[in-house]
Amino acid sequence: MQYRYLTTSLTGCVQQLACNILPHGYWFYCMGRVPDKKDPFAIDAKLLGKYGIEISRQQRLRRKVVGTANLHYIRFERTWVLLATHGMHAFFAEEESSIRDARKVPIKLGDYSLSVKHGGFLKKSEGEDEPIADGKMPVRVQIARERFNELRNYFIEQACHRSVDSLAKELYCLPFEPYAPIRRQQLELLRVINQERQAAGYEKVLSSVLRYKRRIVSPYEPSSLEVKGERIAA
Predict the structure, then answer these.
(1) Which residue spans within the chain are E strands per DSSP?
(2) Which of 45, 189, 219, 224 could make an SS bond with 7 (beta carbons 3.0 to 4.6 A apart)?
(3) What phi and psi, each to the nearest 5 degrees, are found at residue 142?
(4) Average pLDDT, integer, range 114-135
C-alpha cells in the first residue's frame, strides 16, 4: 500500500492532520515551504527517504514497542509538514532548531491554527469534590488568531451598514470548516454583530445562518495523476 502525503486542498490537509495524524501522538513538528525554483517532488523524496517514513503499519507498531519515534509527512501545494511521535529518531537531532510541539505552538496552515490541548473532566461521582481530568488530548482546530481578529473588527465595522441577508450570507460563506472551536468563534462573530445592531436598534442576525456541519473531503491527489506516472503519494 502506497504512503499518501500530497493533499489537494487546504481543507483536506487540515482534516488529515486534525483527524488522522495529530490524534495519534504526532505532536512534534517542523514545517517549511518549497522554494519556487525547486521541484517539490524532489523535496518529498529527499525527506521521505532521509527519515524512513514510507513504512507499513506493522513496522510503525514495532518501532513504537522499542521506543523509536514514528514520522509522518504531509504537503499541500508548496507547504510541507514533518511530524513525529515521542521516541528516539535522527529527526530530533537533524531538525532540532526548527522542531515545535503542537501542545505549545500551533501549526498554522493558511488561516487555520491546529493545536493539541488537554481535554475536559470526568463526570463527578457522589462524594467527589475535585474535578478529575479525563486524560484526553484532543486536537483543536481554530481560525488563526490574527485572522479571527481581522474578521471580528471587520464585522463590527459592517454590522450596522449591511442588511441582515447580506451579513448572513457572508457569515455562512466564511471559508472555514466548522470544527467545534471554529463554531464557537463564529458564534462570537455573530455576538459582536448583534451587539452593534442591537445598540443601533436594528434587527438581529439569527444563529441559524451559520454552517454547523463539517464537510468530509478526500484529502489526496486524484488517482488520474498516478496513471501519468507522477510521484504523488509514495
Answers:
(1) 6-7, 28-33, 71-76, 79-84, 100-101, 107-109, 112-116, 139-143
(2) 219
(3) -130, 165
(4) 69
